[in-house]
Amino acid sequence: MAGLPPGLLIRTAKQVWTTLWQTMMGQMAPSGKGGDYQRPESAFRHEIALDSTYPPAAHRYRLIVGMGCPWAHRTLVARALKGLEETISTIPVVPSPDEGCWLFETPFRGCRTLPELYRQAQPGYQGRATVPVLWDTQTATIVNNESAEIIVILNAAFSEWASRPAVDLYPAALKADIDQWNDRIYHAVNNGVYRCGFAQTQAAYDRAVTELFEALDAIDQALAQRPYLCGDTVTLTDVRLFTTLFRFDVVYYSLFKCNRRRIQDYAHLGPYLRRLYQLPGVAATCDIEAVKRDYYGNLFPLNPGGIIPSGPDLEYLTAP
Ligand SMILES: N[C@@H](CCC(=O)N[C@@H](CS)C(=O)NCC(=O)O)C(=O)O
């Protein structure tokens, strides 16, 4: 039996795959006109404050987290640095490769999936059901689902119960500096790696990858002068940068095509990553196997075969 002529087979396969790829990418990663990835805004933005609906309290709030997610990871690192592990417990979710959403390891409030819980918190909710979630057990709702805000809350609202209450990740004297770095790092690095990986045109990828490595070079230079980005102590900027750097050589370098350079090859960024990793409580928040499984195993349009690579060797993180 004669097969299809190879040229026709290749052209057909390419056309079918490209159409499917664009459809899936459009769902997974909404993009603008130029094919640039556009991250949707978070919907729940309450604070924790005295005399408010959500007052500070021990054992009242929960963090819903997926271990692969860099945004959820920020909240685990802030929680660890403050020593809030006892005060705020976590509820783990894992990604479902087939349903495209997070699943509870054990049903929570009768919900099997995170979207169900979002709809419990806000009937009719149509947006993305993302992690992290800061959940209030008392009113049974979502206080906040924006990691950038949750880490500010964790830094300030629970010091009374913290085992390291003196740690201040957002000191007033450094606020302007922290905010400035955060803006640049969010766009070029934290979201920048996603802009590379989720780019739907060559031009969008080229823009993102150039901005990413320009920012990494600038950060590397800044770190030649001081141990942490804003000086001698760890701040929220370092927390926000850490969770992206931790994933960089493992997934972003290869899966997201951020491969001009590895973090461990930078003169200052490499040791900086190691320094942060070795701070008390931080290593326990890092689950490299979950990171690999969640990215390579679940971002189907980027890795249709679902093969999870064996490397790289991360021993350098624990080196002195
Ligand atoms: N702005 C959010 C973004 C969080 C986010 O995008 N989380 C991803 C996991 S890495 C997620 O839960 N995605 C599920 C979805 O989009 O359906 C934050 O920083 O808290």
Keyword list:
single chain; alpha+beta; Glutaredoxin; Glutathione S-transferase Yfyf (Class Pi), Chain A, domain 2; 2 domains; 6-stranded mixed sheet; globular; binds glutathione
The secondary structure category is alpha+beta
**Overall pLDDT metric:** 95
Q: Please give the CATH architecture of the largest domain.
A: Up-down Bundle
Named CATH topology of the largest domain: Glutathione S-transferase Yfyf (Class Pi), Chain A, domain 2
Order of strands in the sheet with the most strands?
Answer: 4-3-2-1-5-6
Order of helices and strands: HEHEEEHEEHHHHHHH
Give a short account of the largest sheet.
6 strands, mixed
What is the class of the largest domain in the CATH system?
Mainly Alpha
Description:
The protein has 320 residues and is of the alpha+beta class. The protein has 2 domains: 61-161, Glutaredoxin (3-Layer(aba) Sandwich); 172-317, Glutathione S-transferase Yfyf (Class Pi), Chain A, domain 2 (Up-down Bundle). It has 10 helices and 6 strands. The chain has a 6-stranded mixed beta sheet, sandwiched between helices. Helix 2 (70-82) runs parallel beside helix 4, helix 5 packs antiparallel against helix 7 and helix 5 runs parallel beside helix 8. Bound molecules: glutathione. Glutathione (GSH) is lined by residues 42, 69, 71, 101, 128-132, 145-148. Glutathione is lined by residues 42, 69, 71, 101, 128-132, 145-148. This is Glutathione-dependent reductase.
